Amino acid sequence: MEALSDGVFAIAMTLLVLDISVPAGLDSADFHKELSDVLPNIAAYALSFTVIAQFWRDHRSILGAAPAPDGAVLGLTLLGLALVALLPFPTSLLAEYTDQAVAVAVYSGTVAAINAVHTALVAAVRRSETARGPAGPADGGPRVRRQRLAVDSGVTAVVFGAAVPLAFVSPAAAMWSWLTLVPLNFVIGRRRRRTQQEATHREPAERSPEA
């Protein structure tokens, strides 16, 4: 499953670059015009490459140290890979038709769907682990990381999902709304650090009566 997943992610990343090209045999004026026209493709490529790379990292973290996949985990994994393999298509739409509501909505919906699948995948892995038995000391780290990824994926799914109807009002506003992830991730990260610090301070206090 890991080899299949890595292969799908690699192919999807490679397909993104196929829309970036400049015709041969152009004079100077046409060359600069074509180069200017391809800039949206480069921007869409950079965005989707970053998105797929993040999905790949999250995917490996979710399935890392997880028990053998059951039917639900396997099904969600394949669904997520299918959506990742599809991402080059909405990326091409976004590059060519940035001002079109459908193009922005399709891209937003695809990214939202992949994140929703990753959130569901974390839940499926957790259920599989619970059915296997109580967690051991070595299981704590991976489970905490997966829980954090579930929160991150859920927030991203909500932001990009909300951009779908917004795209039909204003495609530009829908794309700008993606940037709300920056302050949201900052707030989430800050709360995590605060929670970790509080937990670290509580541990010595909880152990002191036993000393």
Approximately what portion of the residues adopt beta-strand conformation? under 5%
Provide the structure class: mainly alpha
Structural Rg: 21 Å
The quaternary structure here is single chain
Biggest sheet details: none
Percent of residues in helices comes to: over 70%
Give the tally of β-strands.
Answer: 0
The figure for the number of domains is: 1
Distance between the termini: 48 Å
Q: Which residue ranges are poorly predicted, with pLDDT under 50 across at least 5 consecutive positions?
A: none
H/E element order: HHHHHHHHH
Number of helices: 9
Shape: globular
Mean of residue pLDDT values: 84
Short note summarizing the structure:
By secondary structure, the chain is mainly α.
Structure, described:
The chain is mainly α and 211 residues long. The protein has one domain (2-210). It contains 9 helices and no strands. It has helices spanning 2-16, 28-37, 39-63, 71-86, 88-96, 101-132, 140-167, 171-177, 181-207. Helix 1 packs antiparallel against helix 3 (39-63), helix 5 (88-96) runs antiparallel to helix 6 (101-132) and helix 6 packs antiparallel against helix 7 (140-167). The termini are far apart.
Keywords:
80% helix, 211 residues
